[in-house]
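Our consortium's second objective concerns turning raw sequence data into structural hypotheses that experimental partners can test. To show how far this objective has progressed, the report includes one record in full. It was chosen at random from the queue rather than selected for favorable results. The single chain below, 368 residues long, was entered without modification.
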Amino acid sequence: MSNLINFNRFVSFTTIEGPGKRFALWMQGCIINCKGCSNQEMIPLINRNVMEVSDLFKAIRDAKERFQIEGITILGGEPFIQPRALLELVTLCQTNNLTVIVFSGFLYELLLEKHPAILSKIDILIDGPFIIEKLDKKRRLIGSTNQRVIKLSNVYQNNDYFEQNIIEAEFTVTKNNSMIINGDGAHLINNEEKIRKEEAIKMGSFKLDGDVFSHFTQDIIKVGDKLEFKGTNADMSDFYLSDVKTQYKVISVIPSIDASVCYTQTVEFNKNMKDYPNARLITVSRDLPFVQERCCESFRNEAHFLVSDYNYRDFGTKTGLVFTALQILPRAVLILNQDNIVKYLEIVNPIGNEPNYQAIYDFLDSRK
């Protein structure tokens, strides 16, 4: 009889969870509980999706036939707290000529002592707990500098995938219109001239084409309203709007920094807001804080706040500016005065367009 495996979710085809085309599996449950873990929903030791390994492998075999995947990447949660299921799964993968990459919070030395049979069937192990104070800003998919990329077979000996300084994300819409985001962020685009509107996420595939106002499910903020909200800074500390003391606050709202229109919007405001010393720029999205930081660190100036609404979701709740079905923010720009009263509001419609930058600069010019 096949072992039972408890997992959170899987993606049948991805190109950003390791070399080549891969099947990605996120296990459920973790006993390490790293501070700042980006997969909080995978930590609880609860049954999420439980099935026999042999049945799960049918989905993997189907992915191999349909997408010509070369391997599987197993993440978490913590894979090694389900050793019997993990051993059966990696054995099936090896037997069917699929490479195996595993992320674990445990150190290689401990795993070699406790689970040598599993390690013998893994091609790459990324080991060690995530340590938020040691953020890794250079390697692909690696959370902190203490974590090691250990090549246990010869398959990827000459492959530098994890050494590349690339941040990227994939968006998958499921049959029930929920959205799965995997990867650790977005491509860092160094040549701004290559950022084009047509490279933006085709939001129509997220059922967000057409009138964006039809996707709001509560009253939205308007000019004359007062706004207060709490968010998370890039260093994981709390952000309070009331702590920003300036004559005007320009709040640039974006769906996700990894979409090139969002990136363009962020670069544009960051570059030009320096001409307005009486205003501070605040970029808000529901990206993870360290993803915002890694995407913007090459150009962000000190007067630019990066605020994540991922944890508290206070901005979306207070303003009504949230697409409830997907739990992402729209594209919008708000200008608040020193009392946090909304004096200017643009909700970009359709979402693939950029804001009216000139109208925003004209507003600020008139109040210098």
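The partners drew two points from this record. Helices lie at 53-67, 83-95, 108-114, 116-119, 260-272, 289-296, 314-319, 357-365. Residues 4-188 form a domain with the TIM Barrel fold (CATH 3.20.20). Both points have been shared with the crystallography group to help prioritize constructs.
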